[in-house]
Design goal:
single chain; alpha+beta; five-stranded antiparallel β-sheet; 16% strand; disordered C terminus
């Protein structure tokens, strides 16, 4: 039964393993820094023959040249005759430092003894590769820790952590392996322990790839293959552990034990088996990742598997290329060493891809990242650095080598500098066409997206009205970004209190439901550019809740040059489930900024035409009696008679809501427009007889002159007159004008419930209970008289300052040292039940 570790236990074990590995890396780094390029190569190799071990190859430029010959049969090294049965590696690999050693061989039937030099030599580039291996190992270790702390509860992530830590140990050993013949003490212990990691790091990597992304167990043939692979790996691992343990005993003791009990325990045999398993595991990794990709349907998981596939391809495919070279010896020893170093370096891509696939909440597609990377490489500043860096090195070479010719400077590393300079210059000169060609050839979807945005900017300028702009903009954005849903909303008529829906990609039903969320424009005033909902810090809890219910991820404000925020684009998640990129947001900002200019101009034109049409229609319905018609300022609401054309306070052009006199029946002088409702406009007025402020509601717009609407208006007046309750607004008078009517109400000082919520946010239980108690009292009184309130909402619940509610068990409400009594008011007046 498998042992299930708790998250805290797993993190403690991981941290302990990481700290031990990090300490080992410090020791290894000190060793590498001391040794640098130094090595102690013997210059010859041996192989097991029928009559014992014989010299296989001799380096013509090595220290054993002219001393040993291929075919010499080994008899002893420094008097140790075990070399004839176990080979020279066990005797020389960890021998104490000395400048020479004596080799006894049999050559042509004659015993020969030679004093073979064993100098410390400097191998160019060796220190670089030692540091490279340490750096790669640290990348594995760091990504493993990041995964452990990001996803400690995930079994798949834990497999990745184990794989990363073992790989870090493997590269630690690789950095010290090149120092064979020079190690002792703690570095030798580290090299021996790291040697024993093989091939466990390969198996751990396969176990992760087989389980990623959902951890489903293998079945059938895969399960049988995995078990076989694990058994073979253990069979190879056991002798690797034995070799590591024997090395710790010292070369003399190790040679005696191997000669007596395990003469076949050789590095060459273990290395050959390790190479073979590496090839098999590489093939298995490629196949198992392909299998997992085929069985995953969710787009986000598919992208994650693609990233792992990229890492596996970068790490495993080069191994598949080098394995035949190592087994068949198709290249020289130095060439094979160089190839292996490059292959090991490429594997650094694996931990980076795996960490990204596991840790990121939403991952970008591989193509998106590659495109962004290529675009970054082709930016001007990067190309300038690529041009200036090699050029500076060339100038430095000329300054330090004044006698060198241009031909000499163009060879070796200088040749690559010249090539890099030429490539950077070409890229800088043809940067635009190169980006265009790359997008068309390799990133067709992104290229198509750019083209859509380019044509959209031109099309918006030809749109006839705001709704056409919204439809055009939204449909093109759907083609370019593929959001699951998109809404286009506008501050219709310049209202700061509500949005109106212009376009919805989710159909009429969803469009009708949009209004239920009641998202106010003022909450978005401070948003200046396209932003993710989670990053919009100015949004309140109510707005976030509404946007979450609509599954909105991206907010793109449409701002006019004069009116500020005129509209908003709300985009849902992409159908591919990829996050919106910075490039997406930049293109949206470009489009919405141009849209805002056109949108504002179209709205101003529409508003002017609409106001002129309303004025003509109302004047016609009023039989030309417009000498004393009331006009209002659209900004402050101040009322004037027909003799004025602009507002005295702010200079705005006056508009008309209804063709009624400024003074109604000689009794009520209209002073200020308070607001508009579904059936009328409400004015603050002065009762000229009683010298008191009242509220007057009159019919407006298309309902003016409509007999059915006027009948309904009359029913509202009669219903209001029946109510005499502290929690219901009182009707004071009713009158008629040509083709219309008006209703006089008590003037309330305070604010509606919606305004209170916007100022203070969510109300507490006590405040809410006090307010609703008064509301319920007013509604109950209306129900007793057979009246039903058909539009009860926060805008129609008015909190009267300085008043105390009575009757129906209502209570005084207090907030910010202000007492208030809730009343049903203005456009939501009670109407008789049908």
């Amino acid at each position: 039964m498998p042992i299930r570790l708790g998250e805290s236990t797993f993190l403690r074990l991981t941290t302990a393993a990481a700290l031990l590995t990090a300490l080992a890396y410090v020791i290894a780094a000190v060793t590498v820094a001391r040794q640098g390029n130094a090595s102690r190569a013997t210059g010859w190799t041996a192989t097991a023959g029928d009559s014992g071990w014989v010299v296989a190859t001799v380096d013509e430029r090595g220290p054993a040249a002219m001393l040993l010959r291929p075919g010499d049969r080994l008899v002893a090294i420094d008097g140790d005759t075990a070399v004839g049965r176990i080979g020279p590696a066990w005797i020389l690999r960890d021998a104490p430092h000395r400048s020479s050693y004596v080799v006894q061989v049999v050559r042509d039937g004659q015993a020969v003894e030679v004093q073979t030099p064993w100098p410390v030599r400097q191998e160019p580039g060796l220190a670089f590769w030692r540091w490279m291996y340490l750096a790669i190992g640290l990348v594995y270790l760091t990504t493993g820790l990041m995964i452990a702390y990001a996803k400690p509860e995930s079994d798949v992530a834990r497999r990745a952590v184990v794989s990363a830590v073992l790989a870090a140990a493997f590269f630690l050993g690789a950095s010290l392996h090149s120092s064979a013949g020079m190690l002792s003490g703690v570095p030798l212990v580290l090299a021996s322990v790291a040697y024993a990691v093989r091939p466990l790091h390969l198996i751990a990597g396969y176990r992760f790839n087989a389980a990623f992304p959902i951890g489903a167990p293998s079945a059938g043939g895969w399960r049988l293959f995995e078990r076989t692979l694990y058994v073979v790996a253990v069979l190879v691992w056991i002798p690797a552990v034995a070799v590591g343990a024997l090395r710790l005993l010292g070369p003399d003791r190790a040679a005696q034990l191997v000669a007596r009990y395990a003469p076949l325990l050789q590095d060459t045999t273990i290395n050959a088996l390790g190479v073979l398993i590496a090839g098999v595991v590489s093939v298995a990794n490629v196949l198992v990742v392909w299998r997992n990709y085929r069985h995953v349907d969710e787009p986000d998981l598919k992208r994650r598997v693609r990233w792992v596939s990229l890492g596996v391809a970068a790490g495993m495919l080069p191994i598949l290329v080098v394995v035949p070279l190592l087994i068949l010896r198709l290249a020289s020893g130095e060439q094979l060493v160089s190839i292996v170093r490059v292959v090991n370096t490429i594997t650094v891509v694996m931990p980076l891809c795996i960490a990204y696939a596991i840790i990121k909440h939403r991952v970008l597609g591989v193509q998106v990242v590659l495109r962004t990377g290529l675009r970054y490489m082709l930016t001007k500043n990067v190309l300038r650095v690529a041009l200036a860096g090699p050029a500076a090195l060339i100038v430095w070479s000329l300054a330090t080598n004044p006698g060198a010719s241009l031909f000499e400077l163009g060879t070796g590393s200088g040749r690559w500098r010249l090539i890099l300079i030429a490539l950077a210059a070409i890229g800088l000169r043809y940067r635009g066409p190169l980006l265009h060609a790359i997008d068309r050839r390799f990133f067709r979807e992104a290229y198509r997206q750019d083209q859509i945005f380019a044509t959209l900017a031109e099309a918006i300028g030809r749109a006839a009205d705001v709704r056409e702009i919204s439809r055009l903009l939204s449909s093109q954005l759907q083609d370019a970004l593929h959001p699951r849903r998109i809404f286009a909303v506008a501050r219709e008529g310049g209202s700061r209190d509500a949005f109106s829906l212009l376009y919805s990609s989710s159909g009429e039903g969803h469009a009708r439901g949009f209004g239920d969320f009641d998202i106010a424009p003022h909450a978005f005033e401070d948003i200046q550019e396209t932003i993710h909902v989670d990053a919009a810090r100015t949004l309140g809890a109510r707005e976030r809740e509404a946007l979450s219910a609509l599954d909105i991820q991206l907010l793109a404000p449409i701002r006019g040059p004069n009116e500020g925020l005129v509209g908003l684009l709300l985009l849902g998640a992409k159908r591919s489930e990829e996050p919106y990129t910075a490039n997406d947001r930049r293109m949206l900002d470009t489009i919405t900024s141009q849209t805002g200019v056109v949108w504002e101009n179209v709205r101003l034109r529409e508003r002017l035409n609409r106001e002129q049409a309303v004025r003509r229609e109302m004047l016609a319905r009023a039989d030309g009696g417009a000498r004393d018609v009331v006009l209002e300022c659209p900004a402050c609401g101040a009322c004037y008679d027909a003799s004025a054309s602009t507002c005295a306070s702010d200079g705005r052009e006056l508009t008309m809501s209804a063709p009624v006199p400024k003074t109604l029946d000689g009794k009520y002088d209209l002073r200020r427009l308070i607001g508009r409702g579904g059936m009328g406009a409400v004015y603050e007025a002065m009762d000229l007889r009683l010298e008191r402020t009242v509220a007057v509601k009159v019919a407006t717009g298309s309902v003016f002159g409509d007999s059915v609407a006027l009948q309904r208006f009359g029913r509202e007046a009669r219903a209001s007159a029946k109510l005499d309750h502290p929690n219901a607004v009182r009707a004071l008078d009713y009158g008629e004008v040509p083709h219309g009517a008006y209703l006089v109400l008590e003037y309330l000082h305070g604010e509606n419930l919606r305004a209170l919520i916007r100022r203070h946010g969510r109300l507490g239980p006590r405040e809410t209970a006090r307010i609703l108690e008064g509301v319920f009292a007013g509604v109950a009184a209306a129900h007793e008289r057979g009246i039903v309130h058909r539009d009860l909402k926060p805008e129609n619940i008015f909190l009267v300052q300085g008043a105390t509610a009575s009757g129906g068990g209502s209570r005084r409400c207090r907030r910010s040292s202000t007492s208030a009594s809730p009343r049903c008011a203005t456009s939501g007046l009670p109407t008789p039940a049908s």
